[in-house]
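Supplementary Note 2. Why include the ligand at all?

Several targets in our set were suspected to adopt different conformations when bound, so apo predictions alone were not considered sufficient. For every target with a known small-molecule partner we therefore ran a joint prediction. The input for guanosine-5'-diphosphate is given below.
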Amino acid sequence: MPKGSMCPYCFKIIWKNNVVFRKKDGEKVTDEYIKAYEKNKGNEDFSRNDYKYVDPAFFPEHEKKYSDSNLLLSIRDKTGNELDDRLCPYCHSEFHTGFGERETFPFSVIGNTNAGKTTYLSAISKQVKNSIFLNLIHVGGEKTIERYGEVLDKTEFKDLSDNSKSTVAFLGPYIYDAITNIPVTKKTPKKKDATLVFYDLPGESFKNPEDISKNASYISHSSGWIFLIDPTMDHKNAVSVFDSIYNSFIASGNRHKTNIALVINKGDLLTDIGNDEYFTAMQQRTYFEKEPLDLQLVKKNSDEIRRVIVNKSGDLRALEANVSKFFGEKNFSWFITSCFNQDGFKPINCEEPFYWLLSKIGLYPSVDGPTKT
Ligand SMILES: Nc1nc2c(ncn2[C@@H]2O[C@H](COP(=O)(O)OP(=O)(O)O)[C@@H](O)[C@H]2O)c(=O)[nH]1
Ligand SMILES: [Mg+2]
Ligand SMILES: [Zn+2]
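The joint prediction is reproduced in token form.
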């Protein structure tokens, strides 16, 4: 772990074993670190009492337990309690088991309420299970994605397609260990496992400068952005969400060196476009269950979405122009996805934008053109 791991809550880089521990008994008091963290997030009225914390620096080595890879797992206190709740030294949020073993890669899913963010994350989680290259294991943070996926699995299509019930906004984090199985190539020279953290960021949190400043750290730390667009809604919303983010970053002199997937979700509702015989971008692609992502196909589909959808909307064209300015021409791509088909929760191509973002950071295999079989 040469670079340290990023705290999924406050984004500080934590050097291995630079953690503190929560006591298991004694007095319960206000934890000023958590209070400061909550206040920073805009939660002014936060109040909760917790057991005190202790710094392992004051404990003798023989009271400490390490993993095989030398991760400090727990310490034993004077009364014989094994303290194994490891906290971030900066914000005192509790780390998941194994935090510190892998590098952390945050991903922001941005879109208006009702754009389908929670459904979409559940869809990715479901589709990734078929991949031979990647396995995601939920290790901490919110559990909504998995739980909601189970609910969707049991829901009839007629209820799924009631397109008006938004899930309550949980910002996350949703924390997953990503176990990769990537063939060694020049681009991916060695096996790299990682911790992926998803944040579910409603567009409404980017409306005014105060909200933007509260939420900016999520997106500025992200290794990839997934920008979800509900094609049945007015695109002016999507444009204004991106513009608010864009303006706040430009104003602070930041440019973003990462990638953004522009995802037109709820593709099943675009029935008029689905009838266009040339529109192949919406067709289900299952090759990525066993083959690397084909970057030429991604490009071809992106161009087709631009031709069939984006170019017909002044708002989407404006969005693309700003995205291109902010991220650079090569660092964005259009995708079209659908979380449902007529049979129910049967996601179509939801994993594609995600794999594309992962391939940009060496966590998913890609090839330039179709692989010969
Ligand atoms: N038809 C259709 N509806 C969808 C799709 N994805 C999500 N929805 C519906 O859109 C609504 C909002 O989804 P949700 O995930 O809660 O949106 P969020 O507010 O952005 O988290 C729900 O009623 C979903 O069932 C999709 O691909 N197709
Ligand atoms: Mg939601
Ligand atoms: Zn922290």
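The chain has two domains: 5-87, 103-367. Residues 273 and 309 are 8 Å apart (CA to CA). Comparable summaries for the other entries are listed in the accompanying table.
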